[in-house]
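hey can u check if this looks right to u? its 333 residues, i copy pasted from the old doc so theres a chance i mangled smth
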Amino acid sequence: MSEKDEETFNSVDLELQTQKSPPVTMSEKDEETFNSVDLKQQTQKSPPVTMSEKDEETFNSVDLKQQTQKSQEPDIHPQQSPSETEKPSTPAAEAKAETTPSPRALAVKAKWQTSAQQFKVKKFFVLRPGTLEQSIEDVKSLVDPTEDGAVQSVWLMAEVDHWNNEKERLVLITENNLLVCKYDFIMLHCQQIQKIPLNFIDRVSHGTFCFPPNSFLKREGEGVRVFWDKLREPSFTSRWNPFSVDYPFCSFTYHPVRGANEQLGPLCEIQNFREELTLAAQKAHNRNPVPGKANGVLVLNQPILIEAYVGLMSVIGNQNKLGYCLARGNIGF
């Protein structure tokens, strides 16, 4: 094919292609009409949401109400004020606090748990089975019903004399008298009884023991002292006589075995003894008053003075419990 024929062929081919796909043309007016129709269809698909001024105010007021309701909801865990947290204790809590043991009671209980203390306590003859029951029966048999009256209570205590010597004693409170008994728990017999009429008792003091400022002695614990003749003072010879028994008072303190078992605890409680003695003495004053004496018992809470200064004999005797019935062991070889 020559060049002229080839150009003629290409021109014919282009004319055929233009005839097959004629170009689409649009006038300016038709184009504007088409665009307006397209906008109308879009506005019909998603019409704009319009709201009047009245509706807008109503919507805003409802929204504010919902916000205020959410802010006014109560807190699930409100904070308590200091006045609410510091509420007064109820009677049940006070009763519970009263029933809890005191530190002193816990210390006394722990003291008896050690094996050394148990070994020392077992040396007292009053702890032997049946010894205490037998001693109480023996002392009650010596009570005169016509003179002393019926026995009201029995106590196991330690008497402290004017030279600070401890002595084991059984004390009985009857209707008319106070009986202080020196009982031998080894031989099981009563050696001595001191009778004090209840209507003569005019003063009962309780408190801790104390000594003069220049004294070398010291005693811990509490005691009870019973006075029955406040007008009579001990003489000079009685003060310096360690064996004198004409003092117008007697002093008592706790027995060393008071925490050994539950049976001995109530028998050795000196505070209960003081209360029962005061009540019995008051009844005796009302029943049989003494002429020339004030009918009544004065109860004082004050230190109990022991006028002893050196007391070497009391130091040796109290350390070795010479005033108690103890198993001393074998002395000879």
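The CA atoms of residues 272 and 283 lie 17 Å apart.
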